Amino acid sequence: MAKLLHEIEWSEPLLTPRPNASPEADLTERLSPWLRKAVGSLADPDQVSHAPLHLMGISYFVASQENACRYCYGMARAIMKIAGFKEKQIQDLENEASLADGLTRQVVEFARKLARSNPSPARRDQEALVAAGLSEEAACEIAANVVKACFANRVSTFLALPPDEALERLPESLFGRIRGLFLGRKFRARHVPPPAGFSNEGPCARTIAAAGRNPIAAWLRELTDGWFNSPLLPRRSRLLILAVIARQLGSQLCEQEASDGLAREGLPAQDTQALLATLSPASMTDLENRLVRWTRETVWYEPRAIQDSTRLLLAEVGEQRALEALGSAALCNTLARLALVLQ
User: Fold this and answer.
1) How far is the C-alpha of 321 from the C-alpha of 333, rounded, in Å?
2) Tens of pLDDT, residues 94-103
3) Which residues pair with residue 212 across a beta bridge?
4) Is residue 244 located within the same domain as residue 121?
5) Diameter of the chain by CA atoms?
6) Is the predicted pLDDT of residue 339 greater than 90, yes or no?
7) CATH number of the domain that 100 lies in?
8) Looking at the 3D structure of the chain, how many domains does it have?
9) Do 178 and 218 belong to one domain?
10) In terms of residue numbers, what domain contains 292?
11) Are 163 and 263 members of one domain?
12) 89-129 per-position pLDDT tens digit
């Protein structure tokens, strides 16, 4: 069973804040452009095109608990209370108790399975949501929302972002509940039309197609393009991160995408397969060896352990490359999990 909020061990923040800068501004200034834009957009109210709003909130919450992200889980819990969920309803979700309706129960089970991916979900798990009453586009949007949570959870966990305790306490007092009525407008998701002119072309397009046609799919398309073209890590290193994560998850489509990309970078397919089978240091540069060693720990982890490992990576490769690797692993875990629903 997933851990409850008070059971999650969490370390001190990875980065020491610079003087006279807010934590949010300090962090965004240190990230590369593609990652800065992606992280900044996570604070925007959710825009939903097809799925019921309450199921989007529930799926994000459940994924954050499953990934044991103290930062995102605490924030999502507070926002659900501000949005009107009762404590008993939230505890039922946390403890996997019998829920009110079958569709909600299936969304919770699907979100947990996709976030955990051990065992891996499959196409039939998403098709079960359609059989339970969701449209195909809504089921795709739920899947996209879960993997978006996986991205946010990993970035927050790797950085050991300090929990927003002020927000978490807000729903507990009369003043806080009154204030929450006004803050609810800031956090409340809203329905919008599918993005006009959305074109899913570029790296990992077949995987991103599994997200459907909605604002999260457009976000993921832009995020993937920014990552693929970023110069802060060699492209071969970034593709190795994708390949290692895809192999661990059994994500066939993403492993093929990584293998094809590595072939274009001069690494033949048979050499990629041999490297993934052995992870031999002799087959990699020193930077790749350090990145791959750390990347293997990002698929499944305990928060405190991955935070300690990320701190070691920071010392080994420097802040700029460590932050780029952190974002790369978060995105590659997102893509590789999304691709599982196509299998």
Assistant:
1) 18
2) 887 666 578 9
3) none
4) no
5) 64
6) yes
7) 1.20.1290.10
8) 2
9) no
10) 205-340
11) no
12) 888 888 876 665 789 999 999 999 999 998 888 889 999 99
